[in-house]
Amino acid sequence: MKTSVPDVRFWAEQGGLLLRGAREAASLNQAELADACGTSRTTLSAYEHGRKSPTLETAGRILDAAGFRLALEPKVEFTAHPDGFWVPDRLPRLRVEVALGRAEFPAGHWWNLADRADRQAAYSAVLCDGSPGDITRCVDGVLLAELWAELSLPPPVQAAWEPLMGHGEAWEPPPAAGGGGPPGPRSSSGRTRPERTT
């Protein structure tokens, strides 16, 4: 199953969100960041709103001036399990402040992920009932592996996720009879986010 590639406008908008997020995290206005990286405020505004796309060198210079660096992170692909939950092809990773912050799942229910008992309950709920977006937003792979033996999961969920913990064989969707079956791999947001430099 071939997935469609987002158009140029999509990537320009995603890049704009990345640059604006870095600027806001650095508590800079457009004029301050533009001055620090050697571009004009109007050009930076055009980048942030997706009207123009900077070169990779220019994007790196802007992020550097905001105190960030451009980094690659693996894209996490998801497959629907026949029992109605999602299984990634690798464990997602979160920034520390997100991994130990507050997470909402389901809507209206907040978990304190810094609290081990709350994180254990949240991870159990998200692995059983969460969407790919919920998993990549709430679950950190290292913290999940550390809690794995303590989670209360239905046997199919545990069996499907077990290989990601370094145990057992990877879960594969059953072969489709007549072209049906579960949908193919799904991707999380796939966004490249800036990493804070120290």
What does it look like?
This protein has 198 residues and is mainly alpha-helical. The chain has 2 domains: 8-69, lambda repressor-like DNA-binding domains (434 Repressor (Amino-terminal Domain)), CATH 1.10.260; 77-187, no CATH class. It has 9 helices and 7 strands. The strands form 3 sheets. It has a 3-stranded antiparallel sheet. A two-stranded antiparallel ribbon has the order 1-7. Strands 4-5 form a two-stranded antiparallel sheet. Helix 2 (30-37) crosses helix 3 and helix 2 (30-37) packs across helix 4 (56-65). The longest helix has 18 residues, at 8-25. The N and C termini lie far apart (42 Å). 24% of the residues are buried. The model is unreliable at 178-194 (pLDDT under 50). Residues 166-198 are annotated as: Disordered. It holds the Pfam family HTH_3. It comes from Nonomuraea longicatena.
Number of strands: 7
**H/E element sequence:** HHHHEEEHEEHHHHEE
Main beta sheet, described? Answer: 3 strands, antiparallel
Structural class: mainly alpha
Number of helices: 9
Low-confidence regions:
178-194
Which overall shape is indicated by the principal axes computed on the Cα atoms? Answer: elongated
Strand order of the largest sheet: 3-2-6
Helix share, percent? 40-55%
As a whole number of angstroms, the C-alpha radius of gyration is 20 Å
How many separate domains?
Answer: 2
Mean pLDDT: 85
Q: How many angstroms does the end-to-end distance come to? A: 42 Å
Estimated share of beta-strand residues: 5-15%
